[in-house]
Amino acid sequence: MVNRKDLDPEESPAAEFGVLLRRLRDERGWTQEDLGARMRVSGTHISAVETNRRPPTPQFARSADRALGTGDLLARKVRAVRNSSLLEGFPEFVKQEIRATEIRLFEVGITPGLLQTPEYAAAINRGAVRRGAISEQQAEERLTLLAKRQASLARDPVPFVHVVLDESCLRRLVGGAEVMRAQLERLITFAELPNTVLQVAPYELGERRSFDLPVRFLTLPERVVIAYAESAQQGLLERDYSAVQPMLTAYHQLQAEALPQGASTALIDQVRKGIS
Predict the structure, then answer these.
(1) Partners of 13 in the β-ladder
(2) Which of 125, 129, 104 is CA-nearest to residue 114?
(3) How far apart are CA 138 and CA 274, in angstroms?
(4) Does 157 sit behind a cis peptide bond, omega within 30 degrees of 0 on the bond before it?
(5) Considering only CA atoms, which of 67, 176, 57 is closest in space to residue 117?
(6) What is the pLDDT of residues 142-190, one digit of tens each?
(7) Strands ordered across the beta sheet of 160-166
(8) DSSP string spanning 210-226?
(9) Phi and psi at residue 209, in whole multiples of 5°?
(10) Separation of alpha carbons 191 and 196, rounded Å
């Protein structure tokens, strides 16, 4: 079949759902339009779910089960999609992150995962569990994934990592004084590595700060640059360079406006010493 997109079921629960839906449809010799007609949706809708461009809903899964005669197989699968604690696009981002030659990121409010101490990361996830945002099982899922991401930075050759932190990352107390002091010390240690740059975007930047939400850029071995941005409820992985390029330009502008590394680490140390 021409232009048939290969799918990786390990990319995310939604991708696994899409692979299963395609397999079940293929086994019956149906086209996407055939299945869509039986479900009273368009073939384009079927294609979007199969290729992980559109998340399946419980109603969609139940309708597909009826059309395919699969009992509640897809309905059970879609619950795994909705129960995942990872935002759409993030599993694919992580998959590319572990092979990137360069990683650039900007974070607001909390230290980014790659730089978190275990105690800081645990405190963040405990807070999410207490708020009811995630389950304890999902918290464990996040911490396990974070440990794998951090371990991947020790690969050979090591990636270049450029981090710009909004000053709020330093000022927001997470996990208590001891945990926060250790986290800030971890940032200073990170800045001393030969393959890293760490800058702080101070509050004084005001409207000159390029981003209001976290953003990450990966340069892959083939020199392709991809971007990932997220809000509290949605993640977006962007591969189209026409969309990535203006975001990357804004990041370079932020680098120019942020404090130099020496002044940044001095500010971090000042905040660390002021925690009581």
Answers:
(1) none
(2) 104
(3) 34
(4) yes
(5) 176
(6) 899 899 999 999 999 999 999 999 999 999 999 999 999 999 999 999 9
(7) 196-201, 160-166, 102-107, 215-219, 225-230, 235-238
(8) S-SS-EEEEE-TTS-EE
(9) -70, 130
(10) 6
- Under a CB-based contact definition with an 8 Å cutoff, are residues 198 and 165 in contact? yes
Tokens of 182: 């250790």
Residue 98: count other Cβ atoms within 10 Å of its Cβ. 14
CB-side neighbour CA atoms (13 Å) of 139: 17
* Contact by Cβ (8 Å): 202, 220: no
Q: What is this structure's pTM?
A: 0.71
Domains of the chain and any CATH numbers: 13-83 (1.10.260.40), 90-274 (3.30.870)
Q: How many whole angstroms separate alpha carbon 196 and alpha carbon 214? A: 19
Closest CA to 254 of 162, 190, 171, 187: 162
Selection from 192, 172, 174, 166 nearest residue 254 by Cα: 166
pLDDT digits (tens, 9 = 90+) for 43-72: 999 998 998 778 788 889 999 999 999 999
